[in-house]
Design brief:
Chain lengths: 239, 239, 239, 239, 239, 239
């Protein structure tokens, strides 16, 4: 039995709280159970050097975790003076996932910087980050629309993410920390609102796994992401 | 007239929310108006090298600000690879302030690490941090008492902090960001529950100020800190 | 038509040259067409701190690229003072892939450090690295066997990797740099000699792709990796 | 009895040696007893980016200590690769103190960089630095006047600094290292030639102290700084 | 007797393999016995800031060693986050040596960046690097000539380098690692094709050595460099 | 004519001021004309890890320059976060030079750390540093003798250094900054009191130079160092 009586294909309790941060052009506090991530989207009038004068925009992301978001306190990356490989891997994933659903030409020559900061961690921080960041990004685009800077929100689809894994031989959706620690394999799926694949990352933690098992995980992910996308649409008032 | 109709000697709306963070031994979300700081206290069984085998404990603090806590997005210190001078100055202040009210021998050979992370900033982040960190520290000590590791909470007094400043020639308590930006002088006071001075930092932003003005600021601080300490006692159930 | 008349399911010319480096316990110069990577395996008597006195070993990997391995010279990471996110992502992937096929208990309390240094790059450096690193790792294990330190090579299977991608709507195996730059999607597969999945990473570069397309890529990968594993076995004299 | 028969309100032997450094536009070797600091002022034609094209100048300061300035050798900050929090705090204080007495518009669009390097330390290095830096700054301004670049020295007042502390229950002026190490409280005062407050920093080292004690320290500081300012005027030939 | 029956004035087997790297404008794999260094020359259209708009070019060099080039694995400098003093010393030497034989005005306002990466080390990596880098530099200049960007190769002479040392009281040419480790003194000579001195570095490893011994080392170096220059000319087709 | 009427073989006015620093076990302020370097020697009871429990000591050196020691202000290395290649090269040279004249076994298992900090620079800072550091080292050894920790000063000879160069075709001793900037070649010589060679570094700044010219420089160096050694002996009271 999973914690809180969840079945194998059940998500944890999810909430998306748009507008959580007072100053940001877009923001969302996302909760996947006890994993809480504050996502903000900041509009910046300048693009990175490699995009200057090309008429296109950019979306980039940074990720961080408060030192005591976890069971035992971790080092503060700012104090240690560098970001871990894990942090860099996650923030690159968030940025790629969001760029897959935005029309950078329609965004125009400006940059939107996404910050995903984990206030509390219980597994699945990268998938919660992507799911919440989409909401923050939509709101920042909408802010640009309302200011008259662009004609319409230049997002081509929703994007959301969820983890799945094989735990004790069973395929499970949306692993929490305890499940993730004991998983034989886990995979993160980033899919669009129409079921397109944006990113897949699957890793054997112990023995290699089979193509059949991988198919089960993908089926779970498609179900879970369908529900997450519905929630995104709902909190943004789009239906 | 100050924002929200505040008088010169009025604090902003204050809230202290103990136990905000699930994993930490002690935690408090402190709000001074729109300044919101998450303070956690983490118990660590090891002391720093200079204190090994001396039978005394230690309290240290780290401070950070989410990149979009402010009106315009700031650099992420972890990405830039170093903490700013301002960050280091603040975290040293928080640590000193807390160590002034704890009996390190009674704490025993263990360390309590305080993290103050600013989720949203509107002036006074260092004073809110100290005020909230005291609550987190008390709770972590109480956790040690309840585990039977120490006999009693080894805190000798409450400690709280507030900023004051001279704005447009008037002495004001608890400056918000707009007031702080336009202040002729500002000062941060860290006082104990019994009115003892732990730390005073006063700075002329424009022309030097007078001893009489400094006296006015200290009087405001004593009033404000009296009220903050009463709130600390109240949320901790100590009265 | 692909460069050099390759069909969609053809690998580039592959070579594996074991023992390329004089000093290392195991080494292999791997060539996937014009991508050349020198892989070495160094045996270290000490394990990382988190594994001390647990009777288990560890395998870790580092990855680098000579500044002029590429079409235009890149920064030297040692001169810039930090490794890029891409570098860290790749070296974490190599380490995980190798640890998936080694019995760390049978390796005993020692560490094998893999270095993959790209002498020349033309796409697919991470997959060539994994494929060559397996050979270097096997040789280092064999060196331990010949020295009498362990009873048998503690590898549970071969592991090899290849990239696939969708280019101009067609699914192709083993992309070179030009193909990779223009791909609509690409994916890296790390599979064992018996077809088990160790790692899958698929990314949409432009529009999201479909599950059907993903299936095509996986089929190509299984064919390609089958051939790579046969070459690994051959150069190691295992058949 | 204090070292060398000093009374509680006596400064250590003070000397200010203008022009100590051959190359700098302004310089002063300041000695507060055995604390020796070389202060230089370097004129730079460019201002920092945030001040470009605003017609105003800037004054900034850096602080350092030779590794063997102290009783036991400290790490060289350049070798360790970063400045300590203490160093950053002090150099920020020096910069703020000097900017409080300069008319940045009259200085014009140029920057004066102050370097305070402690050759030998015996307590009070930050207060000696401020006191000597004022002399170096004045000389650099005078150099600009003599070159015809500005009409007059744009300093609005002298500024000097001294530490005070409570040691063994007594309030003392200008603590040396031994006194500072044993102080119950210490405070640094930065005052102008006309007694205006530029900066106050008071810290309880052990138990909190009282407002009355703080008043005693401020009275001592006013006396001491009056004498330091007279010496500054004297060595600059201003009376 | 020296390894492989070498006499005191014999070089190790030397090879120079021009064009080893596919992408670089000039390249050479140089082997001094078991010391193998890949040298590349990259043409960059921009000069460093201090040379802008002066009509002159620049040549600079970077040096690195693969972690397992040596008998025991060394730290990867990119992972450690900084280059060692030894690395910096060597790359400065390579740059100076090459600049001594190039007419920077005839090169025009462009920069040639030399990378010397040690694939395998057995003593004398800096002298092999200089010798191979000259070939790579010549080829990059020739590439500019063939592209019509400059009229002729702007090199004023060949430059090559060799180490000599006193081992067991005997003066030896071109030390390998074992000889170098046991040398009483060693010296690196960088000479031109016409015998001019570009750089001399001599160091006593144990007791100081005499002027007479130094003379012997210089005589050996002149002989060795004469042979190296002949090989450079030969592989470049210049005779 | 050279500045101050110096002949080609004349040193600048030299002074050696032992005991300049109050806290260090040994110290010397050395002046070669307007080049002033403060050298300190600090005794440390621990040796570096590679020498633990071998019964031998170690001497190491660090070098720094105050930011405004030079004509125009340089970056502070501690602020920039790393030491330049030049700094590292010089401090390695100082350490090697001193280790060449000390019997590390007689020093016993302790380390002496030399700090050479340039207060004012006018050419020849590295040679002045070595010359002054020898005096500081001798004094620190003598301090150990006087404390009864070692039987005698374990130095086997004096060591001193001087630069020479070819300026306008003439060979000159002890170059100042202006001469050094215009030199066709320069060389630094580190010799013992008995004329043994410890280190030679010669560099062509423009065209290569000849063996005959190099011989002239060495002759000048031998004369100059003879005089420096006599001064070292004199200030140490050894004759």
């Amino acid at each position: 039995m999973r914690a809180h009586g969840r079945g194998p294909a059940a998500l944890r309790p999810i909430s998306l709280e748009p507008g959580f941060a007072k100053h940001a052009e877009g923001s969302c506090l996302v909760r996947f159970g006890d994993t809480h991530v504050l996502c903000t989207a900041s509009v910046d009038g300048r693009v990175p050097p490699f995009l200057r004068d090309k008429g296109r925009g950019w979306v980039t992301a940074e990720y961080g975790m408060l030192p005591r978001a976890t069971h035992t306190r971790g080092d503060r990356e700012a104090a240690r003076g560098k970001q871990s490989g894990r942090t860099q891997e996650i923030q690159r994933l968030i940025g790629r996932s969001l760029r897959a659903v935005i029309d950078l030409e329609k965004l125009g020559e400006r940059q939107i910087k996404i910050d995903c900061d984990v206030l509390q961690a219980d597994g699945g921080t990268r998938t919660a980050s992507i799911t919440g960041a989409y909401v923050a990004l939509w709101l920042a685009c909408d802010w640009l629309v309302r200011k008259g800077e662009i004609a319409a929100v230049p997002l081509t689809s929703e994007v959301a993410a969820v983890s799945c894994g094989i735990v004790g031989g069973r395929s499970l959706l949306d692993l929490d920390y305890v499940e993730d620690s004991g998983a034989e394999a886990d995979a993160n799926f980033v899919l669009t609102g129409t079921g397109g694949i944006v990113e897949i990352q699957g890793t054997a933690e112990a023995a290699p796994f089979t193509e059949g098992q991988f198919g089960e995980l993908m089926d779970l992910a498609k179900q879970g992401i369908g529900r997450l996308v519905a929630m995104q649409r709902s909190v943004l008032g789009l239906y």
